[in-house]
Amino acid sequence: MDAIVLGGGLMGAASAYFLARRGVRVTLVERNRVGSGATVASFGNIRRSGRYIPQLALARRSLALWGEASKMLGRDVEFRATGHLRLIFSQAGLDEMRSFAEAARPWDLDLEELGPKEIRSRFPGLGPKAIAASFSPKDGSGNPRLIAPAFADAARRLGAKIVEEADVRAITRVVSGFKIETSKGDYAAEALLNTAGAWGARIAAQFGENVPIVAKGPQMGVTEPLPHRILPVVGVWAHDHGGGYLRQVERGNVVFGGGAERTDVSLDTGYATADPARLPGQLRALLPLLPMLANVAVIRTWSGCEGYVEDGLPVMGPSATTPGLFHAFGFCGHGFQLGPGVGEVMAEIMSMGRTDVFLDDFKINRF
Ligand SMILES: Cc1cc2nc3c(=O)[nH]c(=O)nc-3n(C[C@H](O)[C@H](O)[C@H](O)COP(=O)(O)OP(=O)(O)OC[C@H]3O[C@@H](n4cnc5c(N)ncnc54)[C@H](O)[C@@H]3O)c2cc1C
């Protein structure tokens, strides 16, 4: 079997790798550089807490792959299972956390509930006014710059062809499958996987499949290096204090997001910018999580173009109109954790026609 993967973000690169591992002849076509879309902009959160419950099977599969990724790909992708702490500032937050913890248990997600004293003793400096927190010890973070190129390079070593900076001019259905005309030549294959991220709906529309999606840019920032003290990734329940989140990287800088509206992004340029006017409000929203942020310098802000589907869930699985066409796009700001799992599951569906991971809620014809 042969396949073209269209779009070289984390989803495309991981799919190319797992397809190649199954012996499929793969060509990955990316119009920029591999991993330079939403993937590189990611905060790097590898979090299961707070996810849509029917997505936890996929998230569990993906977390296991994150754990193996450095060995599997022959390169450190900086996955660190530092744990994920979610602070609670309101009764609504406590209720939300407890009902999620109950529902998530069958998916091997055991959340520890911490009281204020435990938060202070185990995580000094975090959430002084928090009334409780959840702690998920197996979650953590990975490096958004490293993961997609690592998958693409590993796919290449297995025989996949990785074509970058290839402007796609036309996609045509032909008797034997699909033909893609690009600025770097034409490619043909039996199967086509649409992993075009925020642009995925444009590809799907060419095959009569309409997905309500908007392109948005979450705003991110990073501080100067601070004395190292925060191990886990930190977030909040119930969107308290604007739903901010942060983590400290090994050299001390605190990376943060949330606490600000996402900006609109034009799909024609795909250029997502952080809005400096939103930064003070964003930092204020983060102070209850980490008061130390009051007196630090922010050295960089950024954003990225991500596709948000109307119901907040991605599109994954076979096309409903066109045999041989598959989709995995629109990950609504939470695809970084899922990426390796998406790649493995899409390779199973494309090469065997099935997977044991529940994907029914992500079908393209649900709209
Ligand atoms: C600022 C930000 C922070 C985030 N933080 C987190 C987080 O902490 N945790 C988490 O789980 N998720 C996070 N996400 C979401 C996560 O990064 C994305 O869901 C994930 O990276 C999506 O990967 P992708 O491969 O679908 O898309 P992308 O990485 O955008 O890749 C799609 C690729 O398709 C290419 N493409 C599009 N059209 C064509 C075409 N016609 N021809 C060729 N190539 C094409 C694009 O150039 C692009 O490289 C964040 C997203 C953003 C923007």
Spatial shape = globular
* End-to-end distance: 31 Å
State the secondary-structure class.
Answer: alpha+beta
Share of helix among residues? 25-40%
Can you give the mean pLDDT?
Answer: 96
Strand percentage: 25-35%
CATH topology of the largest domain: FAD/NAD(P)-binding domain
Poorly predicted sequence stretches spanning 5 or more consecutive residues: none
Bound molecules: flavin-adenine dinucleotide
Please, what is the CATH homologous superfamily of the largest domain?
FAD/NAD(P)-binding domain
Number of strands: 22
| Name of the CATH architecture of the largest domain | 3-Layer(bba) Sandwich
Give the count of helical stretches. Answer: 9
Cα-atom radius of gyration: 20 Å
**How does the major sheet shape up?**
6 strands, mixed
Strands side by side in the biggest sheet? 8-2-1-12-22-21
Number of domains: 2
Domain FAD dependent oxidoreductase: 2-348
Protein name: FAD-binding oxidoreductase
Pfam families: DAO (PF01266)
InterPro entries: FAD-dep_OxRdtase, FAD/NAD-bd_sf
SSE inventory with pairings:
Layout: E1 2-6, H1 10-21, E2 25-29, H2 38-41, E3 45-46, H3 56-73, E4 84-88, H4 91-104, E5 112-114, H5 116-122, E6 132-136, E7 140-141, H6 147-157, E8 161-163, E9 168-174, E10 177-182, E11 185-189, E12 191-194, H7 200-205, E13 213-217, E14 220-225, E15 233-236, E16 245-248, E17 253-257, E18 263-264, H8 279-286, E19 298-302, E20 306-309, E21 315-318, E22 325-329, H9 335-352
Parallel strand pairs: 1-2, 1-12, 2-8, 4-15, 12-22
Antiparallel strand pairs: 3-7, 4-6, 5-6, 9-10, 10-11, 13-18, 13-20, 14-17, 14-19, 16-17, 21-22
Bound molecules: flavin-adenine dinucleotide (FAD).
